[in-house]
């Protein structure tokens, strides 16, 4: 990530050197976490804070299931801008398709995990009742096109073990419809509950095969097509599962340039990835090289995200690489905090205006379209 220093500029440039190259000015915007519920409502957020639960990330304070307003206001911004092909800007929505069914899990005494598809979840969110319809609109208009992120944004087996063990913080969060906190009541780090495909032991792998299969089936049912692109939630992914994803139609896998493969027992193997690299299943890896997280609390609040992202795009194009931008859903959510959405959309609008101004030949693509270009299946 470019931080404004010469050192970071050199690091970004070097990281862009390996892999597929093109003279075309291609921009992909990947936005993670759609379909998931981080914090269900302001009432739950305030109650957990009052009980002393450490809620210090911008995700837990600002992110929840997308609302009708969130999606329509994002569409309005994307429609304002057209690229060199005459089409509106398109964003790739990196989606999960399900959330825990808290009522059923409570009713069975935490003995069995149950889930519901996100349109069912949306019925309990007054402002989100039309989001499935809006997803269909986003696909039709090629504004917000979904790809597969996993079934849930939750490590189900890890979460259920903590619930069954009676973990105080995890049980308390459960009572408020929250499944993924990062710290317990004492401020100690909890196991990563957002990394759906991380494993504690190799015995966790068979269940993950079922998660991928049922998740891909649900994705096709909900959106009317089969995703050819998959980004495992939070990154960790045991590569033995790649063969299954290939069988299910996944052609492209999103990954960090250093992929952590969980082996179990807290052991991880590092793999070097670059854009266009093939795996043993003939799938291609796609990597990100630009970052636009204007509401992040993990960086300085004073950071100029528009300028830093433009610099990363400039470096990508200098290296003849597509610019693939990471920009999580949380930046555009307003249910918990309307100012969060207003700030994110305003800065996105500025970024898109400046990209088109600086590079009028730019082409905005989805992740799947970029994969097809790299594979030679599409011009």
How is this structure best described in words?
The chain is α/β, with parallel strands linked by helices and 379 residues long. The protein has one domain (6-40, 65-151, 202-375): TIM Barrel (Alpha-Beta Barrel). It is built from 14 helices and 13 strands. Strands 1, 2, 5, 11, 12 and 13 form a 6-stranded parallel sheet that branches. α4 runs parallel beside α7 and α12 packs parallel to α13. The longest helix is centred in the last third of the chain and has 21 residues, at 338-358.
Number of strand segments = 13
Number of helices: 14
Tally of distinct domains: 1
Distance between the termini: 29 Å
Strand content: 15-25%
Average pLDDT number: 96
Order of helices and strands: HEHHHEEHEHHEHHHEHEEEEEHEHEH
- Shape, per Cα inertia axes: globular
Question: Can you tell me the residue ranges where pLDDT is under 50 for at least 5 consecutive residues?
Answer: none
Largest sheet: 6 strands, parallel
Helical residues, percent: 25-40%
The class by helix and strand makeup works out as alpha/beta
**CATH level 3 topology:** TIM Barrel
């Amino acid at each position: 990530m470019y931080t404004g220093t010469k050192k970071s500029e050199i690091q970004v440039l070097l990281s862009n050197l390996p892999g597929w190259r093109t003279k075309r000015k291609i921009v992909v915007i990947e936005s993670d976490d759609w379909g998931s519920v981080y914090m269900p409502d302001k009432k739950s957020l305030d109650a957990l804070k009052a009980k002393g639960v450490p809620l210090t990330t911008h995700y837990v304070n600002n992110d929840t299931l997308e609302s009708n307003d969130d999606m329509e206001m994002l569409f309005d911004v994307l429609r304002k801008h057209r690229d060199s092909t005459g089409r509106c800007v398109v964003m790739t929505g990196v989606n999960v398709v399900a959330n825990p069914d808290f009522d059923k899990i409570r009713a069975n005494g935490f003995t069995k995990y149950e889930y519901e598809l996100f349109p069912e979840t949306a019925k309990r969110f007054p402002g989100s009742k039309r989001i499935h319809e809006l997803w269909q609109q986003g696909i039709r208009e090629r504004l917000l096109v979904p790809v597969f992120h996993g079934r849930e944004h939750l490590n189900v087996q890890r979460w259920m073990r903590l619930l069954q063990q009676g973990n105080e913080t995890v049980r308390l969060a459960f009572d408020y419809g929250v499944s993924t906190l990062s710290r317990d009541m004492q401020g100690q780090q909890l196991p990563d509950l957002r990394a759906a495909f991380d494993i504690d032991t190799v015995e966790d792998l068979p269940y993950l095969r079922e998660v991928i299969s049922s998740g891909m089936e649900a994705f096709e049912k909900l959106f009317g097509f089969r995703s050819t692109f998959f980004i495992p939630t939070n990154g960790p992914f045991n590569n033995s599962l790649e063969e299954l994803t290939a069988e299910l139609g996944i052609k492209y896998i999103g990954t960090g340039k250093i992929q952590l493969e969980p082996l179990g027992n807290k052991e991880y193997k590092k793999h070097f990835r670059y854009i266009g690299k093939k795996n043993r299943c003939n799938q291609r890896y796609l990597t990100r090289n630009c970052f636009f997280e204007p509401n992040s609390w993990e960086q300085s609040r004073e950071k100029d995200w528009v300028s830093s992202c433009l610099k990363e795009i400039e470096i990508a194009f200098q290296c003849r690489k597509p610019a693939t931008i990471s920009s999580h859903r949380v930046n555009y959510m307003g249910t918990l905090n309307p100012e969060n959405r207003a700030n994110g959309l305003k800065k996105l609008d500025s970024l898109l205006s400046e990209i088109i101004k600086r590079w009028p030949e730019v082409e905005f693509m989805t992740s799947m379209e970029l994969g097809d270009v790299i594979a030679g299946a599409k011009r």
